[in-house]
Amino acid sequence: MKFKFNSLLLVLLQLLQVVYSLTQKEVLLSLRDEDGIIKITDENYGLFRTGVADFYNVLYVTMSQSNTAGQVCEMCFDFEKTLRKVTSSILKQEPDANVLFFIADVSDMSLIVDDLKLTNVPHLVVYPPPTPDQEFSWSTSPFYQYELNVDNANDVMQFGDYLAKILRIYLRIQANFDYNEFVTYFVGFMAVFIIFKKLILPLITNKWKSFCILVAFIILLPSITGYKFTEMNAIALIARDKDDKIMFFSGGMGWQFGIEVFTVSLMYIVMAGLVIALILSPRLKVLNTNTGAFLSVVLGSCLLYMFSYYLSCFKIKNPYYPYTY
Fold first, then answer.
1. Which of 120, 141, 167 is the endpoint of a domain?
2. Which residues cross the membrane (predicted)?
3. Which of 135, 139, 169, 207 is the most buried (most CB within 10 A)?
């Protein structure tokens, strides 16, 4: 009888523990704002500083007001936008993810500054889920720290990828539209298009023949630049380094990224076009002697530079190649 009573008591205790955990979870989730972030204050800091069991604790320390020297943290505002875009995406796509996001503004609270011994802001740290038998604290427990700087404060993709790897979730984030990059590419493309239409196209007498030559080049170049190699080995088109920057060339002669096919093809096309232009420019009757000579010098200089650039790219593949200038 005593054994049954003890067993029943144990089951009741476990049931109470489960109910308490579920209730605590519901209370915590109710404190989140529309982006899934809990704001830390001096009043609730003592509750959260010991962590939340079974949840990743992601803490962002920021400063919304100027300091005593009158300095404003612009990067704090920039990264908070990035943080909120990623947290809202996680909230919508992975609502059951075991992660809680906290934001602490040192302008409104002092406890966290003394407890974490902060000397500067901003900081983004990720604490692994604490266990019930673990003595956990934000000030002493190990954490992952996201390296924040001016260059990546607005990079939503990089931060989203960083969190997705730690949390082991699949996250889809739409990148911010870069107006400066769009204007650069648009102006560059329009300049090339206008030059080709106004200057180059009128000089081409047999347009059908020229079109066939262009198609032949398009078919030929992928064949000699390693397209089949990347296809057979299922190599990704674009690879990135640890800083999330595109790697246009792989080291070594026995491997290449898919993007190398297009990069090398483009260099071949440009150099071949410059050679053809050098051959044909003296035959243009619309150019006088001085203009033709100047054009030849310009084309020759461009060809010299392109070949030098080609050799510098080749040295990435073969660092010991001696014939460069």
1. 167
2. 182-201, 208-227, 257-280, 292-311
3. 169
162 and 237 share one domain: no
Number of residues in the chain: 325
Round to whole Å and give the CA distance between 155 and 260. 25
Q: Answer whether 148's CB lies under 8 Å from 75's CB.
A: yes
Residue 325 within a domain: no
Q: Which residues pair with 246 in a beta bridge?
A: 240
Each residue's pLDDT expressed in tens, for the chain with a length of 325 residues: 544 555 555 555 454 443 434 445 666 777 889 999 999 999 889 888 988 888 999 999 999 998 877 889 999 999 999 999 999 999 999 998 999 999 999 998 889 999 999 999 999 999 999 877 778 999 999 999 999 998 889 888 889 999 999 999 988 887 667 788 888 889 988 988 888 888 777 877 888 888 888 888 777 777 777 777 777 777 777 777 777 678 888 877 777 888 888 888 888 888 988 998 888 877 776 667 777 788 888 889 999 999 999 998 888 888 888 877 6
Integer angstrom CA distances of residue 170 from 89, 164, 305: 11, 6, 44
Domain that holds residue 279: 225-317
The answer as to whether 23 is a domain residue is no
Cβ(103)–Cβ(32) below 8 Å: no
Letter for the amino acid at 169?
I
